[in-house]
Specification:
Elements (H helix, E strand, L loop, with lengths): L1 H137 L4 H41 L2 H9 L1
Helix pairs in contact: 1-2, 1-3
Length: 195
């Protein structure tokens, strides 16, 4: 019994030593776990702070970009309104030019018709003069009177030729004026409309 009792005391002592050793290990493990938990919490806190800073910087950047985009949109709208006004003004100017061109075209047509009439009159007088010349050459008795008539018709013919030349010159001047009106600043006027 004494021997068994000693062995039990020894076993109890060994168990107590093991218990103390395990307690120290547990205490050390708890301390290590606590330190690791604190480090992990600190790292998590740092991550949260950095994330918050990044979020604030991103929001600030987004606000600035939104502000810049809104300013650019306002500027583009103003430019669009200005361009529309310019186009409207150019369209009105183009309409005026078209009206003036139609007017000049009508005048040119009238002048061409008058020129045709003058040409017909000229041909008629020329033919009449030729007939008179034939009559003068075939009628010796009325030579003097027909010679005077021939001179008179020649004067009329010369007058008609001068009148025709004057009308042609006037038509040419009106055509030149019309071309000058239509070509004046045409590159700038039609550039915006073409765009």
């Amino acid at each position: 019994e004494e021997k068994a009792k000693k062995e039990l005391h020894k076993s109890l002592s060994d168990l107590q030593k093991q218990q103390e050793s395990k307690h120290h290990e547990m205490t050390s493990a708890n301390r290590q776990l606590k330190m690791e938990r604190e480090v992990h919490q600190q790292e998590l806190q740092n991550v949260k702070i950095k994330h918050e800073q990044n979020s604030q910087e991103l929001m600030k950047l987004l606000k600035q970009e939104k502000k810049d985009a809104e300013a650019q949109i306002r500027m583009l709208k103003m430019e669009l309104v200005e361009e529309k006004n310019i186009v409207k003004a150019q369209c009105r100017q183009l309409e005026k030019i078209k009206v003036e061109c139609d007017k000049l075209t009508e005048e040119l047509t009238q002048n061409e018709e008058e020129n045709i009439k003058l040409r017909q009159k000229y041909e008629f007088v020329k033919q009449e003069l030729e007939e008179k010349d034939k009559q003068i050459s075939s009628e010796d008795d009325h030579l003097r009177r027909m010679d005077e008539a021939r001179l008179q018709f020649k004067d009329q013919l010369h007058h008609l030729e001068m009148e025709q030349e004057s009308i042609l010159t006037m038509i040419g001047s009106e055509i030149d004026a019309a071309c000058e009106v239509l070509s004046r600043d045409s590159a700038e006027k039609f550039k915006v409309i073409q765009s």
